[in-house]
Specification:
The chain is about 30% helix and about 25% strand. By secondary structure, it is of the alpha+beta class. The chain has three domains: about 350 residues, DD-peptidase/beta-lactamase superfamily (Beta-lactamase), CATH 3.40.710; about 100 residues, Beta Barrel (Lipocalin), CATH 2.40.128; about 130 residues, no CATH class. Helix 3 crosses helix 8, helix 15 packs parallel to helix 17 and helix 16 packs antiparallel against helix 17. The chain is globular, with a radius of gyration of 24 Å.
Amino acid sequence: MVDQEITNSIRYEKVINRLRRKMRRYVDTGPTPGAAISVVTSKGSVWSEGFGYRDLAGPGEVDTQTIFQIGSTTKLFTGLAFMLAVQDGLVTLDDRLIDHWPEFRIRSRHGEKECEKMTFRHLLSHRAGLPREPRIGGNFGNDALYTFEEMVESLRDCWMVAPVNDRYYYSNVGFDTVAYALQRITGQDYPSWVKIKLAKPLSMETLRYGSFEALKEANVAVGTESGFHNCEFTASVDYGCGDVWIGNSDLAKVLVLLLNEGAYEGKEVLKKQLFHEMIKPHFTEDDGFNYGLGVDIYGGFTPRIFGHGGGSLGYASTFYWIPEYDFGVSVQTNMESYGSEKRNPHVLGRDAREALLQANGVTLRRPQPERFLQEKIHTPIVGDLSRLAGFYAGLWNSRVFIRYREGKLYWDVGPETEMTPKGTGFLLKSGNAVRFNFKSKKSRHPLSLTYVNPKWPAAKLNLFRVQPVEADPEARPIRPDLAERMTGIYKATYYGIEVTFNLAKVKNGQLYVHTLYGMTPAHALRPIDDVFFTPKGETVTFEDDELWVENCRGVKWKNPIAELRMLMEKNPKHRLLNKWPLDQIAAHLNELGRKQEAKEVRAIKRTLHSERK
């Protein structure tokens, strides 16, 4: 085994040296304070190293045992923990949730009994119809402290997004629910169960659950917001979906376990058959990105890649393994990145993955839009393009309306884009491709569509045709006095910090809200009072000066300009004064017709960020 490790080190020596220089340059030039990386094969660790500092204050340096929060990479741990309980004969994938939690209830537009259909197979595949977050806690944070149990049990005040197994809908609280159920099934608190059944066999020393336990450690990385300031923690107990804290050297051991199909150092930890249940789709296998049981399956690439990324309050995690070439890579940083950030820390893991493939003489092949549309497929001849129109939803909670007008199709995600016929599908203005998939040659309407964007981490994404929530013809238009009270910008608390804003406005008696996925209508449905539903099925409610969208609480922001100017004077590095929040605030003010205020926000951005340069 030692000889094999030496051979692997020699094989990867050049690429490791390049990656070492890249990692060092990345943290030295900022804004990410620290990072850690591990490269492994099935025989063990090839390289593990830390770079930079644990927090902005310094001088503590990151090493391979520095503890990072790994966000949604946690879901892979939850999948392993559940399958270990299956291995012990305590539960099965097809047990219903209510078999082990009889008191479980959640509101549903589809009948009171709908929640009784949920199995653990549904929950671990994001197909249970649960919302992304609960009412208390979760990634959207909370002002007050709360327990893990209070967080999960707050589902009783939430609404299902869709019927069970209707579609894929990414749900953090679904994985927390699995962890909560395991407490009942095993008779132990969930963190203790994982440490006994997984950490102990792998001799893991750094595994911690929740911020309370992790932040007591001396060798812990403190998350940062865009590298400007340390994040502020109140409560963080999302044990099932995002709250594993762990050192990179121990993550390397998990990668070795996965490359050995459930074995570690020659000993079986998880039966191979149960391991393979984790890395396959359980409901539908698409030609593209799929999801197993807590595992991302990157089927749009050649070779096939497995893993699970994670992003949370001030942290980023990338975690991949490629069995065909017997290696895995894990990268953690103490800065999360957002769409407008150029130095996205997740790119470190993706670049390392592709460099290691090149060391094996392989170039990762990504699907190309035009070539994809030239592939020969057997589909019905569609003369009437209107049959392709509809609402499509799928992985990562993506959604799109395909609109039909005057003989043409339009891709509607924000601004509409005309879809140009090409080969077996359509090209978008962006150069990306869309192809519709049918169950059989006799099908009148498509089952799904495949979207190809070679720049995306997933490359190929399948969205299924589903029934959206539509306006109730009997619902009355919103009264002008209510419309005035509802309209505004609401300061929200994603990940426990004010990093985003929800918006509400009423046009012609119809409510519209701006969420993570853009502007969307929200419909009132009789006889349900005081609750609105987006086309995807997420809830929107108003409580005094609060707007709740998808269980994310926002408080009405009555005078944003005054607050921003006060922060410029007293705390110019405040998170609200970063580029992307200022861009979002200006866009929202424009949407509300408050153009002069939007102009002032853009002026604040120019002043601050020209000075920072």
